[in-house]
Structures are given as C-alpha cells and as structure tokens.
C-alpha cells in the first residue's frame, strides 16, 4: 500500500481525542509493522490506549532514527460540508479529520519504514543505525503518549527524532514553551448596594489579570521565537448582578521564550496576585501550575537537521527552510524531558488546515514527504 492509500485508510479510521481513542489506528499500524518483518512492541498508557513501536535493528542501538507520530486527532466539531471520515479525493486533495494533522504524515513515515523493513528481510546486512517507528496516543490531550515513550526508554537523549506534523514544506525545530496556571481568587460576599461590606473576588482577579499582561509584555523577545504571550482561556465566578462575588477562577496559558521560563513566570503571577490583593482589600489569590513544557531552540549543529535538510534538497531541488513550530509537538516533549538536541518536525500539509472543518492535505505533499523519508533513511544508513 502506498502512502496516499494508507492516508485514506487512516482517515476512515476515527481516532478522536476525546472520543473513540486510538485503538483502530493501533491495530492497522501493528498489522503493517508485523507484516513488514519489523520487531514490534506495545505499552498501555491508558486502558485500551497503547503506544506502539516498530524496530529495525542496526549495528548501533543509538543514535537511532525515530519517526514519532501521533495516532489521535481532535474532535470533529461543527461546520463540515461532508462526512469527516470519508477520505474523499477531490482536486488533488484528501479530505477528512486528521488528513493534515497528522495521518498523512504518519502514513509517509510508516510507508518508508515498512519498505525498509521489507527490504531488510531478504538482506543479511544490518543497517549501521537502528530505525524506529513510534505511534503515540494523547498528543491532542496532555501528550501522555510521548511522555510514556521516553519513560519506557523507547527514545533516548542521543536519538534522531522526527515527527511528521504539518510544516508547510519547512523543517521546524524551535518551540515556545507552554506553561499553564490556574488562578483562584477568594473574597467575601455582600449586597451590591454595600460593596464595602464585602471583598469582590472578580474585581481582585481583574487587577491580577491586568498586571500579568503588563509583566509578560515587558519580558524580553527571542530572535527566532519572538515574544512571550499570555491568554486567559476560561473564567468563572459570581452569583448574580446584585451580589459581591466571593470566588473567581481563571485559566492562564503562557507561551514562553528564552530566557523566560516557568519559574520566572510563576514569580510574575505571584507578584500580580499581591497587586490584586492590595487593590481589593480582603481578597486572597492562589495559583496552581497545571502544565509545564519548556521552550525548545533550534540547534544548527544538529546531525539530524543536516541530514534532513540534505534529504529535502535532494528530493525538492530547493534549499530547506528552517523555522519554528507555532504550537507544541511530541518531539518538543522529548526534547524537554531528555535534553535531546536532535528533535524536529517535517511533514505534509499546513498547520493552517489542522483542527478545522473540511480539513485536507494535498496529495502532492504526501508524495514529497514520503520521498524525503526514504532519502533520510538512506542517508542515516550510510552515516
């Protein structure tokens, strides 16, 4: 099966998160890996949701070339003009949920990997480096699958790790960090006609939010990643228009660039809490860190970056462009957990099409990326 037909098969297999989960994807991938002759392994992360691995053993265990691909997609959502699991081909595109993010990329990596495993079945020669395919769960959630792959030592700090996220033809390595806070503010209820008898938790948190925005705006920018940003995604509190609120809660998403990190961001939030407590006497703020993903910078000395850039140039005839990834990926999780300086993304499609109604991927992009995967395997084997 070629990468285009495999993409269509995978799109027809729902793996929404939250939703059906990845079990259907796991079965297809394991069947193909076993048929190719690769060694296989599974590890259950959540009940009924396992990460999967295929291995082509080389003379050297590390560094291995690791294709890291998530099997889940976001939910379907509203606004589709057709069946999101049809995998219909129209105008040179495959349409459907996950076609861009990232079932086409997974299909490219798996196709190239299985072709190499098949070839190795009839050869007594072992490649110099091991080649590995890892399918993860929960990338569209808390990235527990990538964390499990690291904790199970499926991926090492020395490995060359490539995910197949949609990158618009670019190699993308740097990521802003992602730090999440939950901020709670407690006050004292009172009648709205006598607010001085209470302590307005909503007013208190408003001062805190304003101060957090000011402090983040003063943080230094990064030459590649730009500025740190903050978003207040959810807010709740209050009872009615005529009652001073005694409770308010807000969630905070910070995308941090060096030198700013979670520890420094926490100091900012605590300073903002003190500001709100001073502005509205009687309120008390409390913060909880609910997510901590460090930023990742581009490492120009990376051996994988060099081999991948050469592979892209060989296939496309154009010099590879290197940029930063707008979101956060499984390879960024690996880089953050292990300090690995050879983690990056290169895959078919554009992130602008991901998570949207009528998601699609260009078939020509699939052809380009599977060819790059094949060329990269060839270069790794001769390294």
Describe the structure.
By secondary structure, this protein is α/β, with parallel strands linked by helices. The chain folds into 2 domains: 3-175 and 295-381, Zn peptidases (Aminopeptidase, 3-Layer(aba) Sandwich); 177-293, Alpha-Beta Plaits (2-Layer Sandwich). The protein contains 9 helices and 15 strands. The strands form 4 sheets. The chain has a 6-stranded mixed beta sheet with strand order 1-2-6-3-7-14, with helices on both faces. Strands 10-11-9-12 form a 4-stranded antiparallel beta sheet. Helix 4 crosses helix 8 (330-338). The two termini are 28 Å apart. The model has no long low-confidence stretch (mean pLDDT 96).
Short structural summary:
This protein has 2 domains: 3-175 and 295-381, Aminopeptidase (3-Layer(aba) Sandwich), CATH 3.40.630.10; 177-293, Alpha-Beta Plaits. The protein contains 9 helices and 15 strands.
* Global geometry: elongated
* SSE ordering: HHEEEEEHEHEEEHEEHEHEHEEH
- The residue-averaged pLDDT reads 96
What is the tally of beta strands?
A: 15
The first-level CATH class name of the largest domain:
Alpha Beta
CATH homologous superfamily of the largest domain? Zn peptidases
List segments where confidence is low: pLDDT < 50 over at least 5 consecutive residues.
none
CATH topology of the largest domain: Aminopeptidase
The percent range for helix content is 25-40%
- What share of residues are in beta strands? 25-35%
List the topology elements:
Elements: H1 3-12, H2 23-36, E1 39-46, E2 49-56, E3 60-70, E4 89-90, E5 93-95, H3 99-121, E6 129-136, H4 144-151, E7 160-163, E8 171-175, E9 177-186, H5 201-217, E10 229-237, E11 247-256, H6 262-279, E12 284-293, H7 303-316, E13 322-325, H8 330-338, E14 343-345, E15 360-362, H9 363-381
Parallel strand pairs: 3-6, 3-7, 7-14, 8-13
Antiparallel strand pairs: 1-2, 2-6, 4-5, 5-15, 9-11, 9-12, 10-11
């Amino acid at each position: 099966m070629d990468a285009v037909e495999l993409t269509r098969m995978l799109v027809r297999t729902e793996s929404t998160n939250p939703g059906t989960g990845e079990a259907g994807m796991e079965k297809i991938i394991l069947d193909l890996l076993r048929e190719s002759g690769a060694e296989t392994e599974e590890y259950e992360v959540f009940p009924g949701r396992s990460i999967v691995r295929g291995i082509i053993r080389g003379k050297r265990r590390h560094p291995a070339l690791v294709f890291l691909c998530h099997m889940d997609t976001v939910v379907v959502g509203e606004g589709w003009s057709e069946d999101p699991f049809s995998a219909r081909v129209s105008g040179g595109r495959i349409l459907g949920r996950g076609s861009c993010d990232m079932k086409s990329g997974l299909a490219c990596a798996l196709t190239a990997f299985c072709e190499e495993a098949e070839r190795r079945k009839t050869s007594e020669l072992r490649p110099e480096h091991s080649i590995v395919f890892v399918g993860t769960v929960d990338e569209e959630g808390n990235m527990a699958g990538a964390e499990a792959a690291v904790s199970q030592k499926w991926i090492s700090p020395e490995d060359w790790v490539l995910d197949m996220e949609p990158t618009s033809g670019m190699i993308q390595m740097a990521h802003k960090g992602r730090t999440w806070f939950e901020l709670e503010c407690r006050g004292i209820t009172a009648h709205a006609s006598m607010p001085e008898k209470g302590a307005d938790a909503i007013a208190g948190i408003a001062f805190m939010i304003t101060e957090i925005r000011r402090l983040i705006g003063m943080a230094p920018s990064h030459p590649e990643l730009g500025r740190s940003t903050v978003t207040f995604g959810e807010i709740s509190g209050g009872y009615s228009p005529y009652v001073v609120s005694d409770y308010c809660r807000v969630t905070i998403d910070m995308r941090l660039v060096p030198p700013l990190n979670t520890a420094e961001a926490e100091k900012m939030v605590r300073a903002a809490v003190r500001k709100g407590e001073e502005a509205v006497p009687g309120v008390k703020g409390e913060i909880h860190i609910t997510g901590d993903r460090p930023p990742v910078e581009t490492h120009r000395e990376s051996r994988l970056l060099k081999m991948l850039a050469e592979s892209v140039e060989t296939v496309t005839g154009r010099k590879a462009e290197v940029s930063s990834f707008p979101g956060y990926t499984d390879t960024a999780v690996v880089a953050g957990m292990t300090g690995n300086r050879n983690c990056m993304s290169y895959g078919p499609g554009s992130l602008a099409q991901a998570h949207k109604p009528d998601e699609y991927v260009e078939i020509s992009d699939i052809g380009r990326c599977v060819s790059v995967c094949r060329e990269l395997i060839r270069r790794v084997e001769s390294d």
